[in-house]
Specification:
Blueprint (H helix, E strand, L loop, with lengths): L2 E6 L7 H13 L5 E6 L21 H12 L2 E7 L7 H10 L6 E3 L6 E3 L5 E8 L3 H6 L4 H12 L6 E7 L6 H18 L1
Parallel strand pairs: 1-2, 1-3, 3-6, 6-7
Antiparallel strand pairs: 4-5
Helix pairs in contact: 1-6
Length: 192
Amino acid sequence: MKQILIINGHPDKESFNFALSKAYKKGALKSTTSISEINISELSFNPNLAFGFRKRIELEPDLLDALEKIKNSDHIVWFFPLWWASYPAIMKGFIDRTFLPGITFELEEISHEPIGLLKGKSASVFITSDTPEDYDKEIMNQPVLHQFKTGTLEYCGVSPVQVTYISTVSDSTEEFRKEWLKKVHELGQETA
């Protein structure tokens, strides 16, 4: 049975990101897929990687549970908003504290090239934004994709990574939102 993990990086439970993640889950539940969830804003942890990688900080129970879910998953589905060309601070703290050497990656001894410890896992990434996708691509050069898709997920061995960019959200119509909820629901069914 395929294990799907849904991770929501938006801090606001009333956000469109939460509605999208619920739509995805409903679609995926139409199969025999096993689904687990992490809503980062509900976790109790210190997001500050105070010593970098020099000294390991004891992981809080919520982070240990999150790591188990990540390790046990086959497919990880991320939902988050694009804020200032990146993702929310709480999600950055979650990644800093959980995507650690010896847990999600290690470095090759001589070349120091990354060896991903999450090989065999795939991902879907849903990014909501008020920045039009063309502007993000042509002017900003998609920094969040370089940082998250390439610099985090693929660095740790996750492949393939499918990205869906949803914009513009803040002034979107009810019809726009309903259409996206339907599309994400269908994608949940297809993934499962």
